[in-house]
Amino acid sequence: MRFGRPFGVVLLLTAGVVWLFFGVLSSLVRQWASDDNYSHGFFVLPLAAFFVWERRSQLIAARPRPTVLGLAIIALSLCVFLAGRLGAELFLTRVSLIGTLTGIVLFVWGREHFRILRFPLAFLVLMVPLPAIVFNQIALPLQIFASSVGETAIRIAGVPVLREGNVLQLPTTTLEVVEACSGIRSLVSLITVAIVLGYFAERRTAPRIVLALAAVPIAILANAARVAGTGLASHWIGPWAARGFFHSFSGWLMFVAAFLALVAVQRILSARRARGGPALAVEPVRC
To answer: Where are the beta strands (DSSP E) in the chain?
Structure first.
C-alpha cells in the first residue's frame, strides 16, 4: 500500500482511535440493539467499509500529500469529544469520531484521499442517533400528521372517528399514535436505503439527492397510510388487528411499499435521462 506516512504512524493512530472511542462504539452498538429506531446502524459500518474497499484502486493510485489541516480537524474533533464527555452528550462524542477519522485521512494521506473517501465518511453520519431534543421535535409533528391523515382516511371510508391530538376514537376501539408509530423509524431507515439505492443505481449527484429527498414524503405518507389501515382493520375485523403480529406485519408491509415507491422514483429518473430530458445534474462527479 502506498501511503504518505510510515506504517507505524498509521498503526499508532488506529490504536489511539480504538482506545479513545471504544466506549463510544460500544454505546452505539448497544443502542442499535435496543432501539428499533436506529437498528439500521448495524448495516452502516459494513456498507461504509465496502465503499472504501470499492475505492481501493483509486486510493493506491492517489499521490499522498499530507496536510496540517487534518491535524487541526483532529484537534477540533477531540475538543468536541471532550465537550460531549463533560456534558454527558452522546451525540457530540459520536460525531467527534467521524471528525477524527476525517482529520486522520487528511493528516496522513491528504486532500486527494479525502476526496475519494468523502462519501464513505459522510455515510457514517447515518449510524449516529439523533439527539433526544431533535428526535422529539421531529417525532411529535409526525405523530400529529399521521393521526390527522389517518382520521381523514378513516372518515372517507365511512367510519365515524373523533381525533383528540394523536388519539383516534372509533366506535369499537381507541387508537393512540404513540412515538413508536410516529414513522421516524421508517423515515430514518428509508433515507438510508434511498442513499444506498442511489449509490448503486445512479452515477450522477442530482438523481441521488432526489432519491434521498423523495424518501422523506414517501416514508411519512406510508406511515400515515399504516395508521389509517390499522384504524380500519380494528373497526372492520376487531381490536386485535391493531396489536401483536398484525400490527408489526403492517409496519413491514408499508416499508416494503415505501421501498417499491423509491424504486419507482429511481426508474422514472432513469427513464427521463434515457429520453434525453432536461438534465438534473451538473457534470458527473465521483463521490
So the answer is: 162-164, 167-169, 174-176
